[in-house]
Write a structure and sequence with these properties.
This protein has about 290 residues and is an alpha/beta fold. The chain has twelve helices and seven strands. It has one domain: Vaccinia Virus protein VP39 (Rossmann fold), CATH 3.40.50.150. The protein is globular, with a radius of gyration of 18 Å. The termini are far apart. Bound molecules: S-adenosylmethionine (SAM). The site of S-adenosylmethionine has 20 residues, from helix 1.
Length: about 290
Amino acid sequence: MPGVEGGVGLTALMVAAARAIETHRPDALAADAYAEHFVRAAKASAAWPVRPAEVPDGDANPLWGRLGRYFGLRTRVLDDFLTRSVHAGARQVVLLGAGLDTRAFRLGWPAERVVYEIDRDGVLAFKHQVLDGLAAIPTATRRPIATDLREDWARSLLSTGFDPAVPTAWLAEGLLLYLPSTAERRLIDTVDHLSAEGSTLAFEVKLGVESPEIRANPVYVATRQQIGVDLLALFDGEPRPDSAGHLRELGWSTETHTPFDFTRHHGRGPLPEPNDALAGNRWIFANKPGMYR
Ligand code: SAM
């Protein structure tokens, strides 16, 4: 059963470690008290840092500094997106490739919201083992769904109580980069099909395949060397579909941002550098227009 200890599952632990470090920064943009427990509980990550003081070169470290700051910023921006969406009328939230995301436990949700978390069986089993050990209590109704997003996940979602007639806030954070382009296209079509008017979707993409100069960026090299995670090998190598454009064809409105837009907004986070591993990253915010909201 693929879990968190290898392959793409390890990226969930990497993001958890970045969130743990962010939580303890004096200028933290997001707080996740559960994150360090995941990192410590898995053999593969037990020795990784979970505090800024455990990263000797601090922000100069390409992995726990620059990329870590990126994950901290992304967490905050997408926390804000979900909070905005549920206050604007979304009744349910679907976290696609939820990994070790603890928003169902740490955000303050309005009453009667349901959070669906989709990831593979092994990842969710590990997550539950850690959260159960902490006696963590969700702040919304939480429904985990163990399934592979390359398969027919809509059926599992619908059979778990998901209601396609009410607005949904969807999130694909750090997921689409790893999916084959056909699965990404199907996922976008499925989200559209299951979305009532007033639904929202945020997702992260990378524009195109990166040049050899970008592939040699210290962020990729340090991630491989320091924790053995070869992001470039895990990313799907096919040309990427234009999912924002596809959503617009389906009648959604979209806004595309670089992470640097939010660095400037919040006053911290990564800024562009030469041959930047983050330059192709885009965060897309989409709305299915309607009267519901
Ligand atoms: N969204 C979480 C976050 O930001 O903390 C996790 C991000 S992690 C980088 C990528 C997640 O996508 C992992 O938990 C992985 O198991 C999940 N994932 C990748 N491919 C998947 C697939 N085919 N089906 C289900 N989950 C998948």
